[in-house]
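**Backbone shape codes:**
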Amino acid sequence: MTAASISSSEMLGRLVAFDTVSRNSNLAAIEFIRDYLDGHGIESRLTFDDDRRKANLFATIGPADRPGLIFSGHSDVVPVDGQDWTGDPFKLREADGKLFARGAADMKGFIATVLAMVPALKERVSASRNANGPPVHLAFSYDEEVGCIGVRRLIEQIGMAEAKPLACIVGEPTMMQPIIGQKGLHVFRCQVHGHGAHSSRTPYGVNAVEAAAELVAKIKQMARRIRDEGPFDHAYDPAYTTIHCGTIKGGTAQNIVPADCDFTFEIRNLPGHDPAALVAEIERHAHEHLEPEMHAVEPGTGFTLQPRDPLPDYEIAEDHPAVAMVKGALGANAVGKVAYMTEAGLFGRAGIPTVICGPGDIAQAHKPDEFIQTAQLQRCESFLLRLVESAHM
């Protein structure tokens, strides 16, 4: 691929044409990015999933032996199934200063801007070398939308870099506002083991659906308590930890006491509000208040909780040098915090100062006729250049 210049909008059109819904491979998109970077003399390193159907990409502009800036984005998008789109969701459509396509806002708009700015970024990095300016790392992951899976391997790769990164920008759509905090996400599957019986003999069975309902009611009671009593951080919306039951399945027929029931629940916790204490309260209620009655009928009944891989909460101090650097490049005074998940918590856990900031509106994410404003791409372009110019050791 030649190193011809390309606009952010044109690059976005190329990226959205790849159907990188999380259930699909992202290799075609990653290989396109790798070839594009190669055309600019930038070498990429790929890390694959176990099936080698998906890959992360990591590339460095400038000297790798200095602390650098990471520009991070995920390549996957959510499905369009069942959504009423005006046009083809994988073909960019422009109208009234807006660019419509799946992933336009979340978050191929940021990746497209970074890639379009590669020639300018190379120039800025090269100009700053004599002043110990930082390199720029590009970190593009797979399977963020289904649990921030790929970035875990990508961060391991970054950990082997020659110099610890100076800061990371996760370019989720924030309307170019710097975000310095996000909630954690902890998801659990609860298996309820009952004892089947004919419904005419309900006292001799253990109804797994009813036992599940009692524990779900306890979880709802806890959610209301936290809503009313906190703790609170009004920089978030909602300003408190939330607990939510998302799915439930059990029973086979109306005239059979159900032997099994499964449900899932999640905790989105404020930083500093320990989710382990909430899980312990749920387990204690199950074991101490619900299981004794179940065991009186059949000792083998009860509850089993299975956690999924957690996504950690994250906050960085507003006066941290990385935040000050981002605010300066944006010309911004205000910062924010968000309830939705990003890869920032995993970068932060790895000891990399991270700020969430990118073009587009999160309100457009996952919706039919998702769009990003061209003005947001332009603002992101200016931000990236100023950030590289202003970054210092």
